[in-house]
Design goal:
Blueprint lengths: L2 H13 L3 H26 L22 H32 L2
């Protein structure tokens, strides 16, 4: 293998993103964000905690401002975040491959 071929294969490996890792990262960030936000509202308490956050129940059946609801919301947003992250990673890899 020549030095040029080695350099090209190294560049190929460095330019590609791991789409699965991006999906997991986006899923954990988005799901974890909702999980933390819901539980912070629960701990703060008050007469009507999370009035605006409770509107997510229209999009995520089973979600409510409770500990169980925060777990349900985490699962929903993990799946959505995984899909978005995977799409970003795959699109980036496709564009890098097409630019050669």
């Amino acid at each position: 293998m020549t030095i040029r071929n080695e350099q090209e294969s190294l560049n190929d490996a460095l330019l590609r993103l791991n789409a699965r890792a991006w999906g997991i990262a986006f899923g954990l960030l988005s799901g974890g964000g909702l999980f933390i936000a819901t539980n912070v509202l629960l701990l703060r308490g008050g007469p009507d905690p999370g009035k605006h956050l409770a509107l997510l129940a229209a999009f995520f059946p089973g979600y409510r401002i409770s500990f169980v609801g925060s777990i349900v919301g985490f699962i929903y947003l993990f799946v959505i975040g995984y899909g978005v992250g995977r799409l970003i990673g795959s699109t980036y890899n496709l564009l890098v491959r097409a630019s050669k």
